[in-house]
Specification:
five-stranded parallel β-sheet, 19 helices
Length: about 500
Amino acid sequence: MTAFPPCPGTASACAASVIGIEGHLTHAGATTATGPPGLRMTGLPDATVSQTRDRVYAAVRNSGQAWPARNMTVTLQPASLPRHGTGFDLAIAIAVLTTAGAVPAAALDDCVFTAELGLDGSLRPVRGVLSALLAARHAGYARAVVAPENAAEAAMVTGLTVVPCPDLRTVLARLRSQPFRHQPDIPAAGTPAAPGGPPGASLAVPQHVRQALEATAAGGHHLCLTGPHGARIPALAAGTAALMPPLSPEQMMEVTAIHSAAGLLGAGHALITRPPFRAPHHTAARAAILGGRTATIRPGDATLAHRGVLFLHDAPEFPRDILTSLRQPLQHGEITIARAGHTIRFPAKFTLIASTAPGPCPGTMDCSCSGLQARRYRARPTAELGSHIAIFLNITPPAPATAGAGPTHQDADATSAERVAAARDRARHRLRDTPWQANGDVPAAQLRRSWPPTAEAFAPVSRAVDLGEISARAAHQVIRVAWTLADLAGTARPGPDECGQALAYQLGVAQ
């Protein structure tokens, strides 16, 4: 095994990790002290990080290196930052070996190490590499050593040289400028189908339904679909996500970083280019939908749907506390999770599509429940989320003759996608000097101050408010949808037709 020169005393190697979805840098500092040989770790490591000493010891010995016969102390700084996972293994091993004189300290400059170590010295992938290395690049680091399985994901970070290494032997050889076994070249990152994208769907639907789905996709308005189980509502929800335009470059990086932090990017996956589509089951745990868990806080479906669609099929079956908790992201576009000592904020700006059957009966068509039972059932999601829903739509099962999806429907889908993209462009141009990009994002006060409809066009809406048919908050939803309908029609301002149609959506009587 390699013998060590005189000990330089201290050394530090940088690791990048992710907390929530944000990348953070951790400096693994190693030093020697008097006392029997051993390794002591400080700096708030969790149980997984505490087990690093065993993994590092085995990896060093199995890589042909002698373990330093000294009393070693490793501290993870900043000490106040909570740490979870195994991504610190490689940095700790490099810090220990550098302190022992096995690696020149100058070789660690501008380099970050993020990988788990196997007992045989192999480098293994970790989750959240994209977010972690974005933080490293922002801090001025120029090189990143990662496991080969993380190389394609790491290569998305521009301005950072990615050094994929199969094992600790190769890392040490590179740092010592010694010959090493070259890894095969990694293909440039493409854009394969990444997790979270909606399946393609051809929408054989009536024109008034198609118009409502276009408005949902174009304006980011939240939608509630009511219909029996044979009405193909899940396909309509997925098709609505498919109508949305591709993500912008900034949004691609943002959404991909979220999926990376959740561990949903496999080897070879590149940027997510399409709005994500998430459809959690009503039996899913609260943490799975909203994020959390006990030790490692990870994003839930609401965050994984960021910039896309969150679909709640059979919304009345979801627990009331989950529906209530969704008010926060619907209003503020983020989810806040507080734990002892720290708070994590997850972005969650999604378009909500909720569905409900006409009643609680499991049948697909006829419901034998009383009218009161059916109304109570349908009112469950409305009671918790109703003020945030802009479009209510009743769906009927398609006739057998139109149940299939042919070229005509595909052509209509392409036309709908073009109309949605054009409407979004018009909205962005109108909102170009504001922090908002879609009509559904504009606050009520700003809406009435800067973009009110004409008195003539708004008269039916005012009358509905006076009669108690809708609330004042619902009236603002009507204005937002009216602007989206105007953008879809290519008109400069919503008129009586757009306001009337938007009011019909709010009342659930559109035909």
